[in-house]
């Protein structure tokens, strides 16, 4: 079986073209995108958080799975790359783009918890992990990717990923599963 999604959100080709023009290479794997859409679809009226918008490929996949009542906040430090997402996805009333540091945003946020958190940058993953997990609603899902070793990783990053996996898997309030698939994922569901 070929596990590449057979159906892509209509916005993804345009986002990919824009990413190519701007040299942005960090968009999520299409298989991860397919999983994001399924996880979002499992949460009718759900509250979704993406940390690290990039040019918006993950955002497009999340939106494609969300129903009309669901809402997404996507936070990105680099306004230039997020501008692509804003231009191509910003007319969708379900998404709110935030430009700024994800760590500061996590520290300052005082709203409702989230049913799905896709932590796709440093804050919420390698920093501010406790805060990101605190913002997952009971029964909600925390998802991270880019966990399989890459040739260009510095040695220290391997150790950081190992520590991160241990921290999430060691928690009594989350049930976790590793997926050595796509870029390497960990999915954790809040059980308490
Ligand atoms: C892996 S990419 C995101 C890809 C996107 N989520 C997707 O699925 O296509 C990580 C993004 O995090 C952004 N970033 C880096 N440091 C950040 C920070 N401190 N706060 C928010 N975003 C940050 C980078 O500019 C980059 O666009």
CATH homologous superfamily placement? Vaccinia Virus protein VP39
Average pLDDT for all residues = 97
Q: Please tally the β strands and state the result.
A: 7
The count of helical stretches stands at 7
Determine the fraction of residues in helical runs and give it as a percent range. 25-40%
Distance between the termini: 36 Å
Low-confidence regions: none
Structural class: alpha/beta
What fraction of the residues are assigned to beta strands by DSSP?
15-25%
CATH class value:
Alpha Beta
Ligand names: S-adenosylmethionine
Strand order of the largest sheet: 3-2-1-4-5-7-6
Structure report:
- There is one protein chain.
- The chain has 192 residues and is of the alpha/beta class.
- The chain has one domain: Rossmann fold.
- Helices cover 37% and strands 22% of the residues.
- The protein is built from seven helices and seven strands, in the order ααβαβαβαβαβαββ.
- The protein has helices at 12-22, 30-41, 57-65, 79-89, 102-108, 129-134, 155-169, and strands at residues 47-51, 71-76, 95-99, 114-119, 136-144, 174-179, 185-190.
- A seven-stranded mixed β-sheet has the order 3-2-1-4-5-7-6, with helices on both faces.
- Strand 6 and strand 7 form a beta hairpin.
- Helix 1 (12-22) packs antiparallel against helix 4 (79-89) and helix 2 (30-41) runs parallel beside helix 3.
List keywords for this structure.
192 residues; alpha/beta; Rossmann fold; seven-stranded mixed beta sheet; 7 helices; 37% helix; binds S-adenosylmethionine
Topology:
Elements: H1 12-22, H2 30-41, E1 47-51, H3 57-65, E2 71-76, H4 79-89, E3 95-99, H5 102-108, E4 114-119, H6 129-134, E5 136-144, H7 155-169, E6 174-179, E7 185-190
Parallel strand pairs: 1-2, 1-4, 2-3, 4-5
Antiparallel strand pairs: 5-7, 6-7
Helix pairs in contact: 1-4, 2-3
The protein binds S-adenosylmethionine (SAM).
Residues 26-28, 50, 52-54, 57-58, 75-78, 81, 101-103, 120-123 line the site of S-adenosylmethionine.
